[in-house]
Design brief:
Layout (H helix, E strand, L loop, with lengths): L3 H31 L2 H27 L19 H29 L2 H31 L3 H11 L6 H7 L1
Helix pairs in contact: 1-2, 1-3, 2-5, 3-4, 4-5
The site of MU-OXO-diiron has 7 residues, from helix 1, helix 2 and helix 3.
GO molecular function, one term: identical protein binding
Catalytic activity: 4 Fe(2+) + O2 + 6 H2O = 4 iron(III) oxide-hydroxide + 12 H(+)
Keywords: Cytoplasm, Iron, Iron storage, Metal-binding, Oxidoreductase
């Protein structure tokens, strides 16, 4: 059974995972508008992944006898100065998510809530991957500087992202 405070903290994280999905969908729309279909595709895949993260928390709260209470999702930004600025924004957002997951982990330890601790371990590892994948794209974009050719090359690469739909289905 979750304590009321842990239930509240997990509900708060459901909101942030959905906010991440919303933010990346907003970025997909931004890239779509620029004609960068590969970036848009990558962001839409990321939106699906963030929804899966939210649903993992949803399922866990229910399994532990808690009550999911959805909260208001803030409006994400809709414009960025450049594609690089958007990706840097995304990377910083992921760093914030990592801090939130770490704080949740600290709280689970304080509460002696071992089940939540084990559940959160998956997210601790996932955040390493998230920061790495966003960081790699930012680094590539910095390397090409303002070269349109370089940007279209990265765009083609990002168009190849394949989403594991089985993974998403498991969380539904
Ligand atoms: Fe749900 Fe991108 O972290």
């Amino acid at each position: 059974m979750l304590t009321p405070k842990m239930e509240e903290a997990l509900n708060e994280q459901i909101k942030w995972e959905f906010y991440s999905a919303y933010l990346y969908l907003s970025m997909a729309a931004y890239f779509e508008d620029l004609g960068l279909e590969g970036f848009a595709h990558w962001m839409k895949s990321q939106t699906a992944e963030e929804t899966m993260h939210a649903m993992k928390f949803y399922k866990f709260v229910n399994e532990r006898g808690g009550r999911v209470r959805l909260q208001e999702i803030p409006q994400p930004p809709i414009e960025w100065e450049s594609p690089l600025a958007a990706m840097e924004y995304a990377l910083n957002h992921e760093r914030e998510v990592t801090k939130r997951i770490n704080r949740l982990m600290d709280f689970a330890k304080e509460e002696g809530d071992h089940a939540t601790e084990i559940f959160l371990q998956w997210f601790v590892s996932e955040q390493v991957e998230e920061e790495d994948s966003f960081g790699r794209i930012v680094n590539q974009m910095k390397l090409i500087k303002d070269s349109p050719q370089g940007l279209f090359h990265i765009d083609r690469e990002l168009a190849g992202r394949v989403l594991d739909l089985n993974l998403l289905a498991q969380e539904a």
